[in-house]
Amino acid sequence: MESGAKKWGFQGKQGLEAASTTTVRGYLNLLMGNINQDNCLTVVPLGHGDPSHFPSFRITPAAEDAIVDALRSAKHNCYSTTVGILPARRALADYLNRDLPYHLSPDDVYLTIGCTQGIEVVISILSRPGANILLPRPGFPLYEAWCAYNHLEMRHYDLLPEKGWEVDLDAVETLADENTVAMVIINPGNPCGNVFGYEHLKKIAETARKLGILVIADEAYDNIAFGSTPYVPMRVFGLTVPILTLGSISKRWVVPGWRLGWLVTSDPDGILQKSGVINSIAGFLNISSDPATFIQAAIPQILENTKEDFFSKIISTLRECADICYNRIEEIPSLTCPKKPEGSMFVMLKLNLSMLEDINDDVDFCLKLAKEESVIILPGIAMELKNWLRVTFAIEPSLLQEGLARVKAFCQRHAKKQ
């Protein structure tokens, strides 16, 4: 320090860097940094669920037209209201009302900057000294990051691979106490590729009601189901337990960069209002950023004009990719897939370390795979499940084939000699 200068009174926030490294982006940055730049192989991104880069997942022109129309109208260059503009919230309420036993109004819908901001909102407003929240293991690591940042105690319940990744409801009841505020479910499942059936969701709702906690339903992959289990939104059970639903256009419309999501309160009995949660959501959004106004304005047209054949094509492609992934993994003895994916864009694989040499754990596997084969896979420890792997199959089918062939070659090269 310069002689005689005053001591500086600022410093970086403690703990922020540690929290950020546990996110998907944190691990992806680590893995991308391990790519061998002298390797001429194309990088195969099996770690990040963003298929928008690939021709098979091109956005519908109807959505593009809606954005262009909203922008060229010159009516939406202004600030948005903090909860989102009314036409967008009204259109989303109508979209989400289908098959519900009660009615959502536009006042139940809050627009967010993707599901990411929705997670930030719900964790921030529920955090208080001594409180805890129940998170799935494996799950989506952004919940852990925001809990750590807000000093909200995390308690993990297991998803059971032998039961198709259903929630261990006995564990939920054991973990909860008088300071538990909520439980998070992710359906369709990231990272497991599972889809919860109606009866299981009903049991989750009944368990949460018994415990006096609300359910945070992360439905970023809503309607992305291609197996035998139909998709059922958790808000169907809003008469049983208060529900905060997180959703977005990012995945179903394949536009994650548009950053338009929603937080929806499903609570016909008014419990969230009485407890102050509704006021807290509005208060948080009053001091936060909003999605771009012109993208909000495009929502009614996007919802109305997107044809079913667009969704059918995306589902068909994901089903094909899920089949490729499952069948290719079956050919690799050191990797085990407990259940063929039925939804979302991911699958969890068990890493059988006893069959491999020079591989210490899941992180070591992913780092060496990135360096030797330029294939990016997320280590399970990022989802609180050590020695597992998360693979996304939402990429171009031909590139998926190539990437899994390289994973097979890598595993063969590191296989223990018999």
UniProtKB/TrEMBL annotation:
Superkingdom of this protein's organism: Eukaryota
> Cofactor(s) for this protein?
pyridoxal 5'-phosphate
Q: Is the Repeat keyword given for this protein?
A: no
**What SUPFAM superfamilies does the record tag this protein with?**
PLP-dependent transferases (SSF53383)
- GO terms under cellular component: cytosol
Q: Is Lipid metabolism among the key words of this record?
A: no
**Gene Ontology biological process terms from the UniProt entry:** L-tyrosine catabolic process
What are the residue boundaries of the Aminotransferase class I/classII large domain, all occurrences included? 43-406
> N6-(pyridoxal phosphate)lysine (modified residue): where?
K251
InterPro entries linked to this entry: Aminotransferase_I/II_large (IPR004839), NHTrfase_class1_PyrdxlP-BS (IPR004838), PyrdxlP-dep_Trfase (IPR015424), PyrdxlP-dep_Trfase_major (IPR015421), PyrdxlP-dep_Trfase_small (IPR015422), TyrNic_aminoTrfase (IPR005958)
Which Pfam family, any one, appears in the UniProt record?
Aminotran_1_2
What the entry lists under CDD domains is as follows:
AAT_like (cd00609)
Q: Transmembrane stretches, by residue range? A: none
Keywords of this entry: Pyridoxal phosphate
GO terms of molecular function:
L-tyrosine-2-oxoglutarate transaminase activity; pyridoxal phosphate binding
What the record says about family reads:
Belongs to the class-I pyridoxal-phosphate-dependent aminotransferase family.
Protein name as annotated = Aminotransferase class I/classII large domain-containing protein
Natural source organism: Gossypium darwinii (Darwin's cotton)
